[in-house]
């Protein structure tokens, strides 16, 4: 496993993050604690060092299991969790991104994870009712108190993230170092705005559902799912099946699994992208981790790009089409920044 720097910080993070939404059987499709221990050991043996969880993954079991498993090895990992999800559905202040929710959720996570600080705290999703300046100041207070080291944001519009980091820069607060978004061959819409924004702001990108909830593993194209699945066969579109079949074809030609190809594609497109790999068994996880060593040939990348291409839409398509009109012939001789 190779390591990259988190955002504009000096923190070393592994190419692949370990997702632990499957830690615990409370949601009907996760793993028992013994299998979770085996997966954590396999991830560490491969050189992985980032563990991603959330306050309510498997109804809180994920954090509790991790708290039990990490023990004396806790400092070896970059431990990441999230807040925003409600801790009490009957309490309107038990969720959201305001200061009270952050404080309550953070203390809950520290207790569940049996640690004195969170290495990377993610805002789980944009809360439209809380001013972003309140969120950023509350996060900065948590950092200054030593309970959080770095912060990131998940599932938010690009303009919100940009505004948040500009506020942080102007006011001397802790800025977001990472962005977490869904990204896969079947879902490339973040290429329109969010990924270019991350490039411009120097953010690391943690990618959730890089295998499209199993669609890109061959589960629906090579066989009929036997184990419990988060996606029903009837809900998989013909477009997604077409993409999955191309992934299968590339995998067969290279002599690897479909999962490795799909994961390698996400990493091949940008150096700041870190797929979050989750699994229900150590065998699944071991196969996913092998994607770090797979370099896809240019021809394979082109085929996968073509089958999954999307329209960028306005304004990007319009700007691209207007290059000649705007800049003239001389514009073709301008070298872009690398």
Walk me through the topology:
Elements: E1 3-5, E2 12-14, E3 17-19, H1 33-45, E4 50-52, H2 61-70, E5 78-83, H3 99-113, E6 118-123, H4 132-144, E7 148-154, H5 158-171, E8 176-182, H6 194-201, E9 204-208, H7 238-254, H8 258-269, E10 273-277, H9 282-289, H10 298-308, H11 316-321, H12 323-327
Parallel strand pairs: 3-4, 3-10, 4-5, 5-6, 6-7, 7-8, 8-9, 9-10
Antiparallel strand pairs: 1-2
Helix pairs in contact: 1-9, 2-3, 4-5, 7-8, 7-10
GO molecular function, one term: oxidoreductase activity
InterPro entries: AKR_Detox_Biosynth, NAD(P)_OxRdtase_dom_sf, NADP_OxRdtase_dom
Domain NADP-dependent oxidoreductase: 16-307
CATH homologous superfamily?
A: NADP-dependent oxidoreductase domain
Q: Describe the largest sheet.
A: 8 strands, parallel, barrel
Number of contiguous helices = 12
Helical residue percent band? 25-40%
Gap between N and C termini, in Å? 26 Å
As a percent range, the share of strand residues is 5-15%
Total E-strand runs: 10
Please tell me how large the radius of gyration is.
21 Å
- Structurally, the number of domains stands at 1
Which class do the helix and strand fractions yield? alpha/beta
Contiguous low-pLDDT stretches (5 residues minimum) are: none
pLDDT average, as an integer?
96
Q: What is the highest CATH level, the class?
A: Alpha Beta
């Amino acid at each position: 496993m190779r390591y990259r720097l988190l955002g504009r910080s000096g923190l070393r993070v592994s190419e692949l993050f370990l997702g632990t939404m499957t830690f615990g059987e409370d949601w009907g499709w996760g793993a028992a604690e013994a299998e979770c221990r085996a997966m954590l050991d396999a991830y560490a043996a491969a050189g992985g060092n980032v563990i991603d969880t959330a306050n309510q993954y498997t109804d809180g079991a994920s954090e509790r299991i991790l708290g039990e498993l990490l023990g004396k090895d806790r400092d070896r990992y970059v431990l990441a969790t999230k807040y925003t999800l409600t801790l009490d559905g009957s309490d309107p202040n038990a969720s959201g991104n305001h200061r009270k929710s952050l404080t309550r959720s953070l203390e809950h996570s520290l207790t569940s994870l049996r640690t004195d600080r969170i290495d990377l705290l993610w805002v789980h999703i944009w809360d439209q009712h809380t001013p972003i300046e309140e969120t950023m100041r509350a996060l900065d207070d948590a950092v200054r108190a030593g309970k959080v080291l770095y912060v990131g944001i998940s599932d938010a519009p690009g303009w919100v993230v940009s505004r948040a980091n500009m506020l942080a820069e102007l006011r001397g607060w802790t800025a977001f170092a990472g962005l977490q978004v869904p990204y896969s061959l079947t879902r490339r819409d973040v290429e329109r705005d969010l990924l270019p924004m991350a490039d411009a702001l120097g953010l690391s990108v943690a990618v959730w559902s890089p295998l499209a909830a199993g669609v890109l593993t061959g589960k629906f194209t090579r066989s009929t799912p036997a184990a419990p699945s988060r996606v029903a066969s009837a809900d998989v579109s013909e477009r997604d099946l077409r993409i999955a079949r191309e992934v299968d074809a590339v995998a067969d030609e290279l002599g690897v699994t479909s999962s490795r190809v799909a994961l390698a594609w996400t990493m091949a497109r940008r150096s700041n992208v870190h797929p979050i790999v989750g699994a229900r068994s150590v065998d699944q996880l071991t196969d996913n981790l092998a994607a770090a060593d797979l370099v896809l040939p240019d021809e394979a990348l082109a085929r996968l790009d073509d089958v999954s291409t999307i329209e960028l839409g306005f304004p990007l398509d319009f700007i691209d089409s207007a290059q000649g009109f705007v800049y003239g012939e001389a514009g073709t001789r301008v070298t872009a920044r690398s």
